[in-house]
Structure formats: structure tokens, C-alpha cells
Design a protein that fits this description.
Layout: H1 2-15, H2 25-75, H3 85-88, H4 107-111, E1 113-114, E2 117-129, E3 132-144, E4 154-158, E5 164-166, E6 175-176
Antiparallel strand pairs: 1-2, 2-3, 3-4, 4-5, 5-6
Length: 178
């Protein structure tokens, strides 16, 4: 019986019939070409999804900062609104909240960077009442770190908590979100 198997194996090698020797170069090149085609189709979609996720996070973060401003204003009415993210932030458990460290915002937002966007509080209007400075208005801005890569639009809000956007990625927010 062994001699028959040896004869068949020997004949297969002599006739060029392949056994279990592995893949040929052509087969590997075809598989790699198919993988490259799939990657060229998938990577742009992945980047687009990432930008969309960053923009959604930015809108929610602007909303969160606006709500933190309203909370700050009701907690510290003599100060009005906060004019910095640091005043809204502060480490939980680091002592009692103060007007300079209200501990309302999470640390990532208070630092001004999150999900490909940079956040700031600008355009604060200050009045003095009884020798106490009070901020009566503010603007929250969120701009992409790299327009076109981390996001396409800039977002803004003010004391009315209405979020608007700038399609160019800046702070010239004229269009209202729907």
C-alpha cells in the first residue's frame, strides 16, 4: 500500500500537480490587492465618522458649559457668570467649591480640550455693582483643533444657551442648529 502512495506522490510532483505546499505569489498578491481596495474604501468613512463624533461631542460640551454657567450664576449671584473655564472647574474633593473653583465642570472641559476641539469662554461683559465685579454675559466657543481633520464646524453659545455654528470652523457663529 505504501508503494502506491509513493508512486502517486512522485507522479504528482513530476506532473506539476501541487500538494499542500502553501500559497503562490500570485495568490498572495491578489489577496493583498483586495485588502488594499477595501481599506481605501473604508478609511475615509472612518475619518468622516470620527469628525461627526467630534462635532457631536463639541455640541454637547458647549451645552454642558452653558448649563454650568447658569448653575454658577445661581450659586454665586454676586459674581454673575464665570469668565473662565477654570472658574467652573476644579477637582472634586479638593475642598469646598469657591467662585474661583466651582467644581461644576469635568476636568477635561475645564482644561479647554476635548475630542479634537478647543473650548473657551470669551466676550464677557463686566459691570461693577457695590464695588463688586459681576459678569452679565459671556460666549462659549468650541473650535476644531484642525479644521477638516478633527471637525468642520465651530460652535458658540451665550447666556441664552442657544447653540449656533460657524461652517468655516471659527467663532463667527451665525447659523442656528436645528
Amino acid at each position: 500500500m505504501k508503494t502506491i502512495e509513493m508512486l502517486v506522490a512522485g507522479r504528482a510532483k513530476r506532473d506539476g500537480v501541487r500538494g499542500d505546499e502553501g500559497f503562490t505569489l500570485i495568490e498572495l498578491l491578489i489577496v493583498m490587492s483586495v485588502m488594499l481596495i477595501l481599506m481605501t474604501l473604508g478609511i475615509p468613512q472612518l475619518l468622516k465618522l470620527r469628525k461627526t463624533a467630534n462635532e457631536t461631542s463639541a455640541m454637547q460640551s458647549v451645552r454642558t458649559i452653558g448649563q454650568a454657567e447658569l448653575s454658577y450664576s445661581s450659586t454665586y449671584p454676586s459674581n454673575g457668570f464665570a469668565c473662565s473655564l477654570a472658574a467652573l472647574g476644579g477637582a472634586q474633593g479638593s475642598g469646598a467649591p469657591t467662585p474661583q473653583s466651582a467644581q461644576i465642570l469635568p476636568s477635561d472641559l475645564a482644561a479647554g480640550q476635548k475630542a479634537g476641539y478647543t473650548y473657551a469662554i470669551t466676550n464677557c461683559t463686566k459691570v461693577t455693582v457695590n464695588n463688586q465685579d459681576m459678569f452679565t454675559s459671556f460666549q462659549v466657543t468650541a473650535v476644531p483643533n484642525s479644521v477638516g481633520r478633527t471637525g468642520d464646524r465651530g460652535f458658540c453659545s451665550d447666556e441664552n444657551n442657544v447653540i449656533k455654528f460657524d461652517p468655516q470652523g471659527g467663532t463667527n457663529c451665525t447659523q442656528t442648529l436645528q
